[in-house]
Amino acid sequence: MTDRSPQAAVRGPARSPARRRSPWRDYPVVLWLVTAVVVALIHRSVPSSGWLLIHLVLLGALGHAILVWSMYFAQALLKVPVGAPQLTAQNTRLEALMGGTLLVLVGYPAGWWWLVLAGAAVAVGAVLWHGAALWRMLRASLTARFRITIHYYVAATVCLAAGATFGVLLGRGPADPWHSQLLLSHSMANLLGWVGLTVTGTLVTFWPTLLRTRMDERAARLAGQALPVLLTGLAVLVTGGLAGLRPMALTGLLVYLLGLLWWARALIRPVRTKPPREFSAASVGCALVWGLVGISWVAWLLATGRSWEQLGAGYAPVSTVFAAGFAAQLLLGALSHLVPTVLGGGPKAVRAALEVLNRAATVRLVLVNGGLVLYLLPLPSWVRVTVSAVLLVGLAVFIPLLIASIRASLTARRDTAAGTPPVRRELPRLWSARQLVAGAAVLALAVATGLGLSATAGPSAAGDQHAGVVPTGETVRVDVSARGMAFFPDRVSVRAGDRLVLIITNDDASNTHDLSVAGERTPRLAPGESAELDVGVVSGPLEGLCTIAGHAAMGMTFAVVVEEGSDGGASPGSEGHHSAEGDGPASFIPPRAGAELGHSVDPVLAPLGSPPGDRTVHEITLTVTEVPLEVAPGQWQTRWTFNGGPVGPTLHGRVGDVFEVTLVNDGTTGHSVDFHAGTLAPDQPMRTIQPGESLAYRFSAERAGAWMYHCATEPMSTHISAGMHGAVVIEPDGLPEVDRSYLLVQSEVYLANDARGPEDAEEVDGAKVLAQTPDRVVFNGMANQYDQYPFTAEVGERVRLWMVNAGPNRPSSLHVVGGQFDTSYLEGAYQLVHGVDAFGNRGNGSQALALQPAQGGFVELVFPEAGHYPVVSHVMGDAEKGAHGIMEVSG
After folding, report:
1. Model-level pTM?
2. Residue 261 and residue 253: Cα distance in Å, rounded?
3. Concatenated DSSP letters of 437-486
C-alpha cells in the first residue's frame, strides 16, 4: 500500500545519507544568523547596520535556506534519486550564493557599487542555475501530484533575478522619486516573489506536515489556480513601481493578495483539525500573519501616500515587519522541524532533537511577537531600545537550542547503537500559561526600564560621553540636514547636562552621508534617508564629521558647544528644538522629506490683448493681507502678501501704458509699495500706510524691461522676504510672439519654525534675513513647485523665460540644463537676438541670465529633443534650496 500522507512526501529522496553529510546544508544558515545577532548588538558602530541586518536575514540566511530546502522538497516530491554529481552541483551553487551574498554585504556599506554588482551577478547566477536544475528535474519526473510546487520554485528564482537587478540599481543611490520606486519594486520582487512564492509552494505539503495531520485535498488544485494570479499581481505591482504609477502598483498588490487568500483556504482545514502543538508550526503561523500585515502596510502606504518620496520615508517599519516578523520566524519555525527530521537516526533521535527545539516555546513566541508589536508603536526611543533587545533574545536563543538539538540527536543515536535503554521523552507543551505570564512580565520589565531611562534622560546606549556631569533632565532635539558637502546647521549649543539627540536627514540628491559625534555614528544614509543620533548627556564640547572619505575635508564637520554659565536649572523632562546659533538666528530648517505642494502658481505669461501702439490704462487693486501659505512642500509660513498669493500679481503692458494702482492695507502693520517700472518722487505714492488705509499710485511705463515692485516699508528686507514683491513686465517694441512664455520671480524665504500646517505658521525670521541665511530660495513664492508641476513645451517650439530677481539678498543665474539661449535680454538691452550679437556676429549663444537683486530680463531657446530639462538658478546652493524646476518637453 502506498503512503500518500504529507509526511511521506517530505521524508526525502533516495540516497539521502549523501545529502545529509553535506556541510553546506545547515552551517551557513547558522553563520548568517550569528552574524546578524552580532551586528544587532554592535549596530551603532557598523555602517548601514539596518540595511545589513535585513539582508543578513533575508538574503543570507533565508536565501541559503531556500536553495537548500526547495531542492530537498523537489527531490522528495518528484522522487528523484540524489547522486554525487547532483550533490556536487548543489554545493557549488550554495558556495556561489554565499560568496555573492558576501560581496553584496561588504560592497553596499562601503559604497563600492562595482562590488555590489559583481556579488549580485554571482548570486543571481547561482539562483538561476538552481531554477534550471529544478526545471530539468520537473521535466524528467513522471510524478504529477505535487508538480505545482516546483512551478512555484522556478518562478521564484526568476523573481530573485529581477529583484536583485533593482537592488543593484538602488545601490547607485538614485534620487527620489526613482529611489522609492526602485525600493518598492526591489523589495516586492524579492519578498513576494523569491520568498513568497517559495513559501506558498512549499506549504502545500509542509503546513499539514508541521501540524501532523492530513492535508486539504484541494491544496494542490488551489495552489495551481493561485499561481497565475500571484504572478500577474506581482508583475503589475513591479511594473507600476518602476513606471511611477502608484494606483497601478496598488492594483497589482491587491491582485497578489487575492491570489494569496484564494490559496490560503487550503491552510484552514488542517489547522482546524489539529491546531499548532509545536514551536515549528506556531512560529510559521505567526510568520504568515506578519507577512499579511506587511503586505497590508505596503498597500496602505500606496493608497494613502501623496508621493513616492513619502512612501520611501515610511518604508523602514515595513522592512522590520518583513525581516523580524515574517522572515526570521518563518526560517526558525521551518528549521525547527526540518533539521531533526533530516538528521534522522530513528524516531528516538528525532524526538530528542524536537524536545530541545520546543523548549520555552511560549516564552519565545511572546517575546518575539509581543516585542515586535511594542517596537512598532510610537513609544519613547529608550523603550524601543529595550524592547528590541528582548525581541533579539527571543530570536537568538534558537541558535544555542539548534546546536543542543543536534547534540541530543547524536546522543540518542549512540545510545540506540549501544543498546542503552532510551530515555522516555515527552515534547514540552506549546501553550503554557506560566510561560505566557513570564513572557509578558519580561516585556513589561523592558518597557518599564525604557521609560525609566527616558524619564531620567540617562546616557545613550553607547555610554555617557562625559562621566560625572549632573543631568539636567532636558532633552535637546535638533534637526540636521546633510547637503552640498555641509551640515545645516553645522553647530549646536546646549547646556552642560543636557541630553542631545540629532535627527540627521540626507537631503543631498546624489551623495551618501553619515554623521559621527564622539564615537556615536549614524548608518550611511542614502539620499532621502534619516536617522536619529543619540549623543547622550553632554558636559563638554564635542566635534563631529562625516566619516566617508574626503567629505570632512570638503567641510562636512559638526560642533557641539556647551553654553557658558549654564546651571542645569531646566525643568525635568522638558523637550524641544533649540536654536543652533544661540541668540542669533534660528538654525536652518531642512525640507520635509516626501511632502508635496497642494497647488502651484501658474507661471504662464499670457500675450497682451491690445495691439501695439494703443495706449492702455491698467487699473489694479493690491490688497495687503497677512495669511499662512505653503512656501515649500509640507512647510508653511505666515506671509505678508499683495492679494493673498505666494507672489504678487504680474503687471503686463507696453511702453506708454498707464498703471493706476490702489493699495489697500488689510494687514496688521504699516505697508507700502514701490514700482521700479515708474519714475516719480517717492514721498507720497510710496509712503507707508497703516492698517485700514489706502492710497492711489499712478505711473506711466516709459521704458521697457522686466521690473520689480515691492513693499518699501522698513525693514525693507523683511517685508520683501515675507512675500511683498512682484513683477512688472513692459515689453520692448517689436517683441515677436513666441510659442510659450513663462515668468519667474525669484525670492528668498526665511523660516522661523518648521510649521506643518497653517495653524502652526509663524512670520518671517528677521534675524535670518539680516544674516542672509535663507531656508529656501524659490520661484514664484514656493520651493520646487515646478518640479511637481513642470513647465511644458514641445520640440521645436520657441520658449521665452522672463525672470525678475526680487531678492532681497541673493543673486540669481537663470540656466536651463541641456539648453542654450540664442536670445538674451538683460535690464532693457538685448545681448543676443537669435544668435546675433551687438556687432552683427552670428552663431552665438548664452548659458545663463545673471541677475542681481532687483534686476530682470528674459531669454529664449528652442529645445532640440524631448526630455526633462531642469530650470535652475546656477547659484547651486540656491537651486538646492528650491530655486529649481523642470521643463517637460514632449515630441
Report:
1. 0.55
2. 12
3. HHHHHHHHHHHHHHHHHHHHT---TT--SSTTPPP-S-EEEEEEEE-SSS
CA distances from 218 to 177, 198, 199, 204, 386 (A): 43, 19, 17, 10, 45
Question: If you write DSSP's letter for every residue of 308-339 in order, what string do you get?
Answer: HHHHHHT-HHHHHIIIIIIIIHHHHHHHHHHH
d(CA 506, CA 514): 8
Please give the backbone phi and psi of residue 868, each rounded to the nearest 5 degrees, phi first: -115, 115
In a 3-state reduction of DSSP, which class is residue 14?
coil
d(CA 16, CA 14): 5
In Å, what is the CA distance from 526 to each residue of 173, 287, 439, 512, 612?
6, 29, 37, 5, 55
Nearest C-alpha neighbor of 336 from the set 287, 283, 289, 288: 283
- Exposed, middle or buried: residue 617 (CB in 10 Å: 0-12, 13-18, 19+)? exposed
The DSSP annotation for 246-278 comes to HHHHHHHHHHHHHHHHHHHHHHHHHHHHS---S
DSSP conformational letter for 822: S
Backbone angles phi, psi at 690, to 5 degrees: -90, 165
pLDDT of residue 745: 97
CA angle, 379 then 384 then 387, to 5°: 120
CB 888 within 8 Å of CB 878: no
β-sheet bridge partners, residue 884: 872
Under 8 Å between Cβ of 853 and 769: no
Report residue 371 as a C-alpha cell: 516585542
Half-sphere exposure at residue 365, Cβ-oriented, CA atoms within 13 angstroms: 28
Tell how many helices (H) and how many strands (E) occur in the chain: 25, 29
Helices marked H in 680-760 — which ranges? 716-721
Rounded to the nearest angstrom, the gap between the alpha carbon of residue 832 and the centroid of all alpha carbons in its chain is: 45
Identity of the residue numbered 849? L
Phi and psi (nearest 5°) for 355? Answer: -60, -40
Closest of 389, 393, 363 to residue 375, by C-alpha: 389
Assigned C-alpha cell, 709: 515692485
Q: For the beta carbon of residue 444, count every other beta carbon within 10 angstroms.
A: 12
pLDDT at 708 (0 to 100)? 96
- Dist CA 279 CA 355 (whole Å): 10
* Averaged pLDDT, 720-738: 94
pLDDT (tens digit, 9 = 90+) per residue, 405-464? 888 888 888 877 777 765 555 666 778 888 899 989 999 998 888 887 766 543 333 334
Q: Percent helix, strand and coil across the chain, each rounded to 5?
A: 45, 20, 35
- For residue 763, give Cα distances in angstroms to 709, 712, 780: 21, 18, 18
Residue 664, beta-bridge partner list: 623, 694
Q: Rounded to whole angstroms, how far apart are CA atoms 74 and 632? A: 56
Residue 750 sits at φ, ψ, to 5 deg, of -120, 105
Q: What is the pLDDT of residues 1-59, one digit of tens each?
A: 334 444 444 444 444 433 444 565 667 888 888 888 888 777 666 666 777 888 888 88
Which strand ranges, in their side-by-side order, compose the sheet holding 849-851? Answer: 789-794, 884-890, 867-873, 812-816, 849-851
- Mean of per-residue pLDDT scores for the chain: 84
Residue 293 CA: distances (Å) to CA of 183, 299, 321: 18, 10, 8
Torsion of CA 729, 733, 736, 742, to 10 degrees: -10
Q: What is the model's pLDDT at position 175?
A: 63
The whole-angstrom separation of Cα 47 and Cα 110 is: 8
The candidate with the shortest Cα–Cα distance to 187, out of 335, 32, 31, 311, is 311
Question: How many other CB atoms are found less than 10 A from the CB of residue 576?
Answer: 8
pLDDT above 90 covers what percent of the chain? 41
Q: Cell numbers 556687432 correspond to what residue?
A: 839
Identify the bridge partners of residue 801 per DSSP, sorted by sequence position. Answer: 742, 859
Distance CA 670, CA 653 (A): 29
Which residues are registered as beta bridge partners of 671? 689
Rg (CA), the chain: 34
